[in-house]
TrEMBL record:
Cellular component per GO, a single term: nucleus
Name recorded for this polypeptide: Calcineurin-like EF-hand protein 1
Domain EF-hand: 110-145
Entry-linked InterPro entries: Calcineurin_B_homologous, EF-hand-dom_pair, EF_Hand_1_Ca_BS, EF_hand_dom
GO annotation, biological process: protein transport
Organism: Callorhinchus milii (Ghost shark)
Keywords per UniProt: Calcium, Cell membrane, Cytoplasm, Lipoprotein, Membrane, Metal-binding, Myristate, Nucleus, Phosphoprotein, Protein transport, Repeat, Transport
Subcellular location: Cell membrane; Cytoplasm; Nucleus
Example GO molecular function: calcium ion binding
Span of the signal peptide: none
Family of this protein: Belongs to the calcineurin regulatory subunit family. CHP subfamily.
């Protein structure tokens, strides 16, 4: 759907759009470009840290890592393709998930892939296990955030 446009083909996305529509991709691309302060076609850690939603999110750092993760390695720069692939996990699950052709690769917004994505946010050392310490670290961060929001209420 909507992946045939020439501007999108120029981005090298003609074969796969990760389920995004043409207008969504156009919007994502303009967001990507506005974040790319060094204008080198890739986002650095600092570029991501300027996103207000991530700056206030207790798991912001880990979400940034999720964008930068290639296999088990954290890359310094994220290109548009990688940006889009990470965001694809946040798309709503499609109703017809079960009726899809099992030979097709599972979409990134499937239940499994969403779970895997969340799991990776907790698995800091990428050993495919969440240790007690890793879980506690997340809980502590969330707790701080909750305390802060309570303080703001009073
Ligand atoms: Ca681990």
């Amino acid at each position: 759907i909507g992946c045939k446009s020439s501007s999108i083909q120029r981005l090298g996305l003609s074969s796969q759009c990760e389920g995004f529509s043409h207008s969504q991709i156009t919007r994502l691309f303009s967001r990507f470009t506005s974040l790319d302060k060094s204008e080198n076609g890739a986002l650095s850690r600092e570029d991501f840290q300027r996103i207000p939603e991530l700056a206030i999110n207790p798991l912001g750092d880990r979400i940034i890592n999720a964008f930068s993760l290639k296999g088990k390695k954290i890359e310094d720069q994220v290109n548009f393709r990688g940006f889009m692939r990470t965001l694809a996990h946040f798309r709503p699950i499609e109703d017809n998930e079960k009726s899809k052709d099992p030979r097709e690769p599972e979409p990134l917004n499937s239940r499994n892939n969403k779970l895997l994505f969340a799991f990776r946010l907790y698995d800091l050392d990428k050993d495919d296990k969440i240790s007690r310490e890793e879980l506690l670290q997340v809980l502590e961060k969330v707790d701080v955030e909750q305390k802060m929001s309570i303080r703001f209420l009073h």
